[in-house]
Structure formats: structure tokens, C-alpha cells
Amino acid sequence: MTNLLEVQHLEKTFGEHQVLKDINLQVEPGEVLSIIGSSGSGKSTLLRCINLLEQPTNGVIQFHGENILTPKFDVATYRAKVGMVFQSFNLFNNLNVLQNCTVGQTTVLHRDAITAKKIALEQLEKVGMAPYVNAKPAQLSGGQMQRVGIARAVSMSPEILLFDEPTSALDPEMVDDVLDSMRALAHTGLTMILVTHEMAFARDISDHVVFMDQGVIAEEGTAEQIFSHPQEERTQAFLKRYL
Ligand code: ADP
Ligand code: MG
């Protein structure tokens, strides 16, 4: 099978500080890949390189076999196909819930307003946020905002959806609703790359797991391999903290 996304020898340096070192990974269509690792290990930077919020220093990122880092690559089209759900939600505070989920569709994808509204409502329904279409983000709980963030991202019909610690900013009682929404999405066959500290959840939904340590992939494998039979001492020490 052709990989949807392939990262080869990726490096990212900020000033003197090399944050990503020789990162290699592949994501097949429909796969859920989880990235775990300590704070500062480079997980967010890797996601941000994948969606070109950061420009990699070296290496290759292929999407459908095409290198996205060449000057002639159509970055705008690519960005529309690669969605992102942020730890801090990043909703538009001046727009209501429905508008948050339609604005990208109409401006970036040029969908007509009726189609955009229909798609947004379908996605808001799936995350249990349809009753809140007229609410502004400030009126919502963190868990509700994040479910809107997910609905907004999915409304763009992404080919791949990136999540950067989507539940880390939430009160504990709100985490499960968000994880349930993500689990349902994974079951639709959407390709997902997930940075998370929710180990039980990652173990449950991931096809593949990458453990990062100090800018390198220290170990990778199936969820079973990484969580039940980690080979590297660094992985074992990291996972012990979550038992
Ligand atoms: P993680 O998401 O695993 O916590 P990050 O990717 O956020 O790790 O950060 C990895 C390292 O890169 C950290 O040491 C961080 O300080 C550094 N870093 C991240 N972004 C920048 C930036 N824009 N400028 C300088 N250093 C950065
Ligand atoms: Mg991070």
C-alpha cells in the first residue's frame, strides 16, 4: 500500500538547538499513529513540521508520494487537507460555534454557505455540540470547546488529522467526552496522528506508536509492542510514570 504520509530524515533546528534529529515515519491511509514522549522531546515540533507551521531544516516529507518541501509544492491546498486540533482549542472567539465550523469551508474550500452549514451541523451532531450552534466559545466549557475544535477540523474533510495533546488543557471530568469523539472518528477510518499523554487511550486506538526522546524516535512499534513489551530502557522508564 502507498503511504499517505512519509517522513524521511527530518531535522529541525532552532538557532543552535537541534530539536528533531533524523525522524523517519510512515502513515498509511486509515492508520492511527500516536506519538508519546516527555515534554520537550519534540512532539509538537514534529506535528508542526508535518503541517508546515514550521519549516523543517532538512529532510523530506512526502504526501501521496510528493515531497511537500519543494518550492513548487502547493502549500495552500496541502494545508486544507491536513487538519489540526490544538491543545488550546484555537477557536475564533468572535464567531459562534456554527460559524467556527463553516468559515474555513467557505473561505478555503469555497463551499457554498448551505453546504458548509449542513456539513458543520453533521459534525457538531457527532460530537454532541449541535445544541450549542449559537453559543460563543467563551460560553462553553473546555471540553465543549475542544469538541467544537474537532467538529471544525473534520468539517474541512481532511485527509489526515493531527491532534496535539487535545485533552491536556481540560478538567479531568471533560476528558472522556473528547476522547469518545476522537475514538468515533478513528472508527470512521480517518487517518490520525495523535500526540497524547492519555496512555490507555493511545493503547486502545493506535495502530502504531512512536516514542520520542530528546528529538529522536527512541522506539516504535504496534500499541501492543510499545505498551506491553517496550524494549528500550528509556521507553520503559517513561511508561512507568503512567502506571
Ligand atoms: P514537546 O511537544 O514534545 O513538548 P516541543 O516540540 O514543543 O516538545 O519542543 C521541543 C524543543 O524545541 C523544546 O526544547 C522547545 O523549547 C524547543 N522549541 C520549540 N519551538 C521552538 C521555537 N519556536 N523556538 C525555539 N525553540 C523551540
Ligand atoms: Mg507539545
Automatic annotation (TrEMBL):
UniProt cross-references to Gene3D superfamilies, sorted A to Z: P-loop containing nucleotide triphosphate hydrolases
- Subcellular locations according to the entry: Cell membrane
**Keywords for this entry?**
Amino-acid transport, ATP-binding, Cell membrane, Membrane, Nucleotide-binding, Transport
| Top-level taxon | Bacteria
Listed InterPro entries: AAA+_ATPase, ABC_ATPase_HisP-typ, ABC_transporter-like_ATP-bd, ABC_transporter-like_CS, MetN_ABC_transporter-like, P-loop_NTPase
Q: Name one GO cellular component term.
A: plasma membrane
Membrane protein topology class = Peripheral membrane protein
Q: Cite a single GO MF annotation.
A: ATP hydrolysis activity
Pfam families found in the cross-reference section: ABC_tran
Occurrences of domain ABC transporter (ranges) = 5-239
Name the protein family: Belongs to the ABC transporter superfamily.
Q: Note the PANTHER family from the entry.
A: AMINO ACID IMPORT ATP-BINDING PROTEIN, GLUTAMATE_ASPARTATE IMPORT ATP-BINDING PROTEIN GLTL
Protein name in the entry: ABC-type polar amino acid transport system, ATPase component
Q: Which organism is it from?
A: Lapidilactobacillus concavus DSM 17758
Taxonomic placement: Bacteria, Bacillati, Bacillota, Bacilli, Lactobacillales
